[in-house]
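User: Is it possible to get a 3D structure for a protein together with its bound compound? The compound here is coenzyme A. I've pasted both below.
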Amino acid sequence: MLRQPGSVADVATDGRGKTVFGFAMSRVFAPEAELLTIAVDRGWQGSGIGKALLSAHLARLSAYGAGHVFLEVDEGNAAALRLYSTFGFRQVGQRPGYYAKKDGSRATALVLRVDLG
Ligand SMILES: CC(C)(COP(=O)(O)OP(=O)(O)OC[C@H]1O[C@@H](n2cnc3c(N)ncnc32)[C@H](O)[C@@H]1OP(=O)(O)O)[C@@H](O)C(=O)NCCC(=O)NCCS
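Assistant: Yes, that's possible. Here is the predicted structure of the complex:
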């Protein structure tokens, strides 16, 4: 069981090492973890890869001693919010003006948390 801070990454591939569909990466400081990023190739989005990837990733974070996971997400990121709510993430805070947008405006980051069973 990891009891020191460390990075944990999972990659979704075609199983032959030729195509990478997506990846997820977190920092673990048991009993806490922070999901730093998760992304699925644009051409494969909406086909369930994000759910499969996050499911496997959360299981691994739990195995590494994480009891709860935090993340930050742009309040306008509908796909990510849907994905996170599926896994029980709930808003516990917000950071107004956290993200810089291309048009010069700024977006609020929502801070989400899930407790791993
Ligand atoms: C967020 C992301 C990882 C989701 O991956 P994905 O493979 O497309 O997700 P899935 O196909 O597993 O779908 C997960 C859920 O989101 C929903 N969803 C997918 N795309 C959506 C969209 N554009 N708008 C709203 N909901 C969407 C799905 O319907 C599904 O919901 P359900 O469980 O009710 O059926 C992917 O959109 C992505 O890489 N986005 C760019 C990077 C990013 O924003 N990462 C998050 C940073 S915090």
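The chain has two helices and six strands. The mean pLDDT is 94.
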